[in-house]
Structure formats: C-alpha cells, structure tokens
C-alpha cells in the first residue's frame, strides 16, 4: 500500500550535519552548470520563474545545519525539487532514497491522451483505452477531475516535475506512439479517483513498487534503511575509471520498442538499435520520404558505444541512397519523443540533407574556479607530452586522448571562424579571457572541429558525412521548401541541435503536435537546448587526470593548493551509494544561436513552431495518418490549429553571416577534437504508459 511505503520513506533516519556537508560537496560539481546566471536572471519571456540554483543549495545546507530535516527522504525531496526547477533535462539528480520505492497508478496502465474529437476544437483529456475502443463511433466521455481536482490543475502540477517547457512537459504526461514516462517518486496517495464528464467515477488502487533485488533483509527500520541506501562507502576513482569525460549517461524516460507499436510499416532502412528508420511507401504520397529519428545513439552506459553510433550513420546513409534511387522529392523528419543522444550525429544528418551548408553549432562553458584550474593545468601540458607514441601502454594512450579532448583543454575546440585557440587564457586568441555575460564568466563561444583528422581518430573511427574523412560529394536531394520537421516538443539535446541547424541555417519549417489544451504557439524544441550533458563521475575523472604521469608534472604548487578546496572528486560524497556520481548530471555547455551578440543561450529563447496541430483519435495511436496530415499542411494547403506553415517565426533564419569556408565547407583544422558528450537518449517507439500526477 502506498501510504505504508510513504511512511517507510518518512521514517528514514537523517544525519543533518552529514546532509549539510553533502550539499557542500555537491556545489563543487554544480558550479559547472552553464546556465546559473540565466536561471537567476532569465529573459522576461522565459516560461518559468527565476531560480537561484546555487543559492538554493545554500538554503538546503543551512536548513540541514540547523537540524531542519526530519528524514532523509524529506532532504532528498527538497534537493530533487530544486534540481527539477532548473527545467533542463541535462540537469538531474538521483538522491539515495530515490528508486528505493516508486508509485504506480493501478496494476494495469492508466494512460491518458489529449485529443480533439473533430480536429479543430480545443483538445480534452481521455483515457487512451476508451478512445481506442470508440474509434469507429466516437462517443467517449472526457476526464474532468482526478481525486476531486480539475484535470488541467492536476496535469499542470505534474508537469512541474518534468524538465521541459510547459507544452513538452504536458506531452510527456500523455500516451502517444512515440513516448513513455516512468513511475513517480512522489507520493500519490492510496487511490486515484478519475471522474468523467458523464458523471461516472473510476477508482483505482495505487501501488508502491520496490525494484527486484534492491532491498536487503537487514533493513528493519528507518535507521537501517538509511544505513543501507545512503551511508555507503564511495570510491570516486573506481566509480569513474571506465568513464569517458566526453560522453555521458542520463536517465532514459522512454522505452525502446522493436516496431512502431506493431504497425506493419516496411522501412527501407532501419537501425538495429531502434534509433532511426526511413520509410518510402505511403499510398497517395508517393513523392515522400519519412525519416523517423527516435534517438541519437541511445546510450545505456557512460562509455560511448561507437558501434551504435556507427549503425546510426550507416542507416541514414542507406536511407538517403534509397531516397535518391526512388527520386523522392519531399522529406518529413519525425523527431517525436527524441530526447537526444550523441551530439555529433546531427552534423551527419544535416550534411546529408544540405551538403553545401556547414553546421554552425556554437557553444560555451561557464567559467568557475575549478574550470580555471583544469584549463590552466591543461594549458601547461606541452603538445609533445600529449602525443601518443608506440611505447605508450593502453592506459597512457587513453589518458592522453582524453586529456586532449577535455572540454577545458583549449586544443579541443575551435573559434567561431574555425581557427585554433592559442591557449586557455594566454596568447592572441585565448579560450577563456574570460567573457562576461549576464553577470557571469564564460569561455569564448566555440565550435566542434569535425574536419580534424585527429577528431575522427578519437571518436573510434566514426566518420561523419561532409567531414574531411568523407567529403560531401553528392548534390543535395531537397530544397528547404521540400523538407518539414514534425515534433511533439520533447525534442532535446542532440535533437535540438539538428532542428536548430535545419530551421536557423536552412529555413526548414516545423510542425508541433499536442501540448497543453490552450490555444497559442508551441515550441518545436521544448526539451533542453544545452549543447552537452555531463555527469558527476566525468568531473571526478577530470580531477583524477591531474594526478597522472601525463599531467601531474605540470600542476603548479599554487594550483595544487587551490585544488583541494575547489575541485570535485577529491572528497568522496558523504552520502550516497555507488551510483551517486553517475546519478547526478548537469548541462556543461550553453548552445548559442548564430548572430546573437547578446549571448543569450537557446535554452532561454522561445522558438515557436511555424504550425501547431492537435492529436486526434486516429493520429495519437498511429503515425501514418499523422504523417499524411503533416504532408497535407506542408504541401497541400491544409490548415493548422494555430499558426501557418508559411509563417515567419523568430527561430527561422537564412544562415546569413554564419561563418563558412570553401563555399560552405569548413577548412581543415590542424588540432582540435570535440569534447561534446552523449546526453539523454530516448525512444524510437513507446509502449503503453502509466499516468503520473506528481
């Protein structure tokens, strides 16, 4: 029973002094969050209220110091709620009590859909099972209240715990063909009473769930609960020993399914890992190709899997070859439910569609005392010390490669006009002068040197189309007017990078589906627009490099003295299990739009889709009629529920003044490797999901 499970969590013992010291250590990691200044002082049209993130951590530490938390669960919930308030899918936490108990509304899934019955009226909320049963004769009653509260109020409150903009967060609470959501960590009560517009009520017993094998028979009360889950010996170096600092692992909110909910589509190219698939055969739409991108290399580990990424590239290559052979003239790119993945892969797809446009991808790091230490140390390491020789063993080779590609190594990035930086803070072209913006310090905004030969070598031989290793030789297949992007707003991270390329540089139009049941514009990209996710164990790895034979000799006494109180990872986290370091993450790099001298991160810019439509009883369950609707809007003059496919919106641009070289192809760069990481990888297609009101 959930109330008994909730009482168990509330009984979890807490050492408030230990909790306060835990927050002190967390701040050493969260100081790398790129958006701290803009969270505290956002633009006036930002969707959420200001958040003093570091100040909020201080408040939690002060309350703990004063003995203000009655249980470990109460402390963990306060920490989780603060992290939720950042509204960034790259920024997440898994406190030690999270995952010990979660809640499900009913033994069978209680799935909600938000649909318009006639295609034009404002959408209402229904049970998905009722809609499916009434497809042939739609006379279904909508959901009016949950536990006596208006359904919109319930869903708005639930969406507060989802790290997206309001419309994307709303869509994450709904069932559709592209997405699923997890159980809730917050207590929902023992019963869920759903009242419908016809006056009937469905009462559902909620469940408390304990993961198999996660508990011990030694847990008999609140003291032993906390001892088992929260006061475990943690060894930062062992936690991160196999972790690449240029890749990340973030929570997966969706579920990968082998087909699109069993619909019998015949893809002409399909990735074996269910990341991407291409379709050509649509009756009545014979000139159209559909590229369904569910994720950009869905990672389950922090270490990059280049086989997965390679299969993604191979699938898109095969798809566009089939498109060329069949002479398709229209392209729908469906990124519904795509929460991101490897942030390099959007470059490959974009160049296959528009080979004459160089992807822009400008990003920056937040400056802070720890970042400055990393940067100064790596600057002091001479180039020859990082050169890999035949006498180096595998460990030394790996360290040299990772140090070279570190986000704080000036060699790993290039300038906006594709020139090398001269040092961290020295020379004519330093990476970190620093740059002041909105009351905070940042590096120079730079770009990924994808044309570097060394870059290709350090990404496991992953070769991107349009790079120096594989130049773009085929002419483009489509004009921008013949391409349209379909999104449900969940698009985030690597997905956001692709859509920004398409809309800002190629002027491709976007159609957003779903969202809140209110009229108005909806963002095409409602998930995180950050350029790189980074888990805490990656930061520990960066600190560990300073004590290796490769880097250690170049750490000055002055920097070594500063490091002890500044760098993350030198003091183990006072609370948490072995998963603690990988269970926390942050956004390391802001994504900066081209031509924006104000330096406002894309995360804080509202970018409406050209066109917004609602789900219908047919399209919510089946992507094929949705793709046909998108085609009719884009090329047959059909109407949107809001906006117009031909409207000009703020995120669209011609690519004017975007730096390129050699007629749209970036010149070779002698040094430099992207330090971009792997962020949230989500779904190709989702299974039925449980309604959560958190």
Uncertain ranges: 234-264, 299-304, 652-694
CATH architecture of the largest domain: Alpha-Beta Complex
CATH superfamily of the largest domain: 2-enoyl-CoA Hydratase, Chain A, domain 1
* Overall number of structural domains: 4
* Mean pLDDT over the residues: 84
Number of beta-strand segments: 20
Q: Please give the share of residues in helix.
A: 25-40%
Biggest sheet details: 8 strands, mixed
CATH topology of the largest domain: 2-enoyl-CoA Hydratase, Chain A, domain 1
Structural class by helix and strand composition: alpha+beta
Q: Quaternary state, please?
A: single chain
CATH hierarchy class name of the largest domain = Alpha Beta
Tally of helical segments = 20
Describe the protein's architecture and organization:
With 694 residues, the chain is α+β, with helices and mostly antiparallel strands. Helices cover 28% and strands 13% of the residues. It has 4 domains: 110 residues, no CATH class; 106 residues, Pdz3 Domain (Roll); 199 residues, Alpha-Beta Complex (2-enoyl-CoA Hydratase, Chain A, domain 1); 149 residues, no CATH class. An 8-stranded mixed β-sheet has the order 8-9-10-11-15-16-19-20, sandwiched between helices. A 5-stranded antiparallel β-sheet has the order 1-7-6-4-5. β13 and β14 form a beta hairpin. The C terminus is likely disordered.
Set out the fold topology:
Blueprint: H1 2-10, H2 16-30, H3 36-40, H4 53-65, H5 72-84, E1 102-105, E2 112-115, E3 124-127, H6 128-133, E4 143-146, E5 149-150, H7 151-159, H8 166-172, E6 191-196, E7 201-209, H9 222-229, H10 236-239, E8 269-270, E9 276-279, E10 288-293, H11 306-326, E11 330-334, H12 345-353, E12 362-365, H13 369-380, H14 383-386, H15 394-404, E13 435-437, E14 440-442, H16 453-458, E15 483-487, H17 494-506, E16 509-513, E17 532-535, H18 536-545, H19 557-563, E18 585-592, E19 611-613, H20 623-635, E20 642-643
Parallel strand pairs: 10-11, 11-15, 15-16, 16-19
Antiparallel strand pairs: 1-7, 2-3, 4-5, 4-6, 6-7, 8-9, 9-10, 12-18, 13-14, 17-18, 19-20
Helix pairs in contact: 2-4, 4-5, 7-8, 11-12, 12-17
């Amino acid at each position: 029973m959930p109330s008994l499970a909730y009482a168990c969590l509330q009984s979890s013992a807490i050492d408030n002094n230990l909790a306060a010291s835990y927050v002190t250590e967390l701040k050493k990691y969260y100081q790398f969050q790129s958006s701290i200044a803009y969270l505290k002082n956002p633009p006036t049209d930002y969707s959420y209220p200001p958040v003093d993130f570091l100040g909020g951590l201080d408040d939690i530490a002060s309350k703990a110091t004063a003995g203000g938390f009655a249980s470990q669960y109460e402390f963990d919930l306060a920490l989780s709620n603060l992290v939720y308030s950042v509204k960034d899918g790259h920024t997440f936490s898994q406190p030690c009590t999270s995952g010990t108990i979660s809640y499900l509304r009913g033994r069978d899934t209680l799935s909600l859909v938000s649909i318009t019955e006639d295609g034009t009226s404002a959408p209402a909320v229904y049970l998905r099972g009722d809609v499916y049963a009434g497809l042939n004769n739609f006379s279904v009653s909508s959901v009016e209240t949950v536990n006596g509260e208006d359904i919109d109020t319930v869903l708005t409150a639930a969406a507060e715990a989802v790290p997206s903009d309001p419309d994307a967060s709303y869509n994450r609470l709904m069932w559709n063909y592209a997405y699923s959501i997890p159980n809730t960590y917050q207590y929902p009560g023992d019963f869920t009473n759903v009242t419908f517009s016809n006056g009937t009520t469905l009462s559902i017993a909620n469940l408390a769930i304990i993961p198999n094998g996660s508990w011990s028979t030694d847990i008999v009360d609140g003291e032993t609960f906390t001892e088992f889950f929260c006061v475990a010996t943690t060894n930062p170096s062992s936690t991160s020993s196999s972790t690449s600092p240029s890749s990340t692992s973030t929570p997966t909110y969706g579920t990968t399914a082998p087909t699109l909910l069993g619909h019998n589509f015949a893809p002409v190219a399909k990735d074996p890992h269910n990341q991407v698939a291409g379709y050509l055969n649509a009756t009545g739409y014979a000139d159209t190709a559909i590229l369904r991108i569910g994720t950009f290399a869905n990672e389950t580990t922090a270490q990059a899997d280049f086989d997965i990424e390679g299969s993604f590239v191979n699938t898109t290559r095969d798809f566009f070859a089939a498109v060329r052979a069949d002479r398709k003239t229209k392209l729908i790119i469906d990124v519904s439910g795509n929460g991101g993945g490897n942030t390099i892969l959007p470059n490959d797809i974009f160049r296959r569609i528009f080979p004459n446009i160089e992807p822009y991808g400008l990003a920056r790091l937040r400056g802070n005392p720890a970042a400055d230490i990393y940067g100064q140390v790596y600057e002091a390491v001479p180039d020859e010390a990082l050169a890999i020789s035949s006498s180096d063993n595998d460990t030394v080779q790996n360290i040299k490669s990772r140090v070279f590609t570190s986000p704080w190594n000036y060699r790993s990035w290039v300038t906006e006009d594709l020139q090398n930086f001269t040092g961290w803070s020295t020379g004519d072209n330093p990476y970190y002068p620093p740059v002041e913006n909105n009351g905070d310090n940042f590096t120079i905004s730079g770009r990924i040197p994808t044309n570097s030969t060394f870059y290709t070598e350090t990404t496991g031989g992953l070769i991107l189309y349009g790079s120096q290793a594989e130049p773009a030789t085929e002419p483009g297949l489509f004009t921008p007017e013949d391409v349209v992007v379909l999104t449900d707003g969940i698009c985030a991270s690597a997905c956001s990078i692709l859509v920004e390329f398409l809309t800002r540089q190629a002027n491709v139009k976007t159609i957003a589906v779903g969202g809140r049941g209110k009229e108005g514009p909806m963002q095409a990209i409602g998930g995180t627009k950050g350029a790189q996710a980074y888990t805490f164990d990656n930061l520990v790895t960066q600190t560990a490099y300073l004590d290796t034979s490769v880097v250690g000799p170049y750490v000055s006494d002055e920097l070594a003295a500063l490091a002890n109180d500044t760098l993350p990872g030198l003091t183990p986290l006072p609370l948490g299990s072995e998963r603690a370091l990988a269970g926390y993450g942050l956004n390391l790099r802001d994504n900066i739009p081209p031509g924006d001298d104000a330096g406002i991160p894309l995360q804080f810019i509202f970018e409406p889709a050209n066109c917004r439509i609602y789900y219908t009883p047919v399209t919510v369950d089946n992507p094929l009629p949705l793709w046909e609707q998108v085609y009719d809007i884009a090329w047959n003059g059909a109407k949107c529920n809001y906006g117009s496919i031909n409207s000009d919106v703020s995120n669209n641009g011609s690519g004017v003044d975007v730096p390129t070289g050699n007629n749209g192809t970036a010149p070779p760069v002698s040094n430099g490797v992207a330090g971009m990481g792997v962020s949230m990888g989500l779904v190709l297609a989702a299974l039925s999901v449980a309604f959560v009101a958190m």
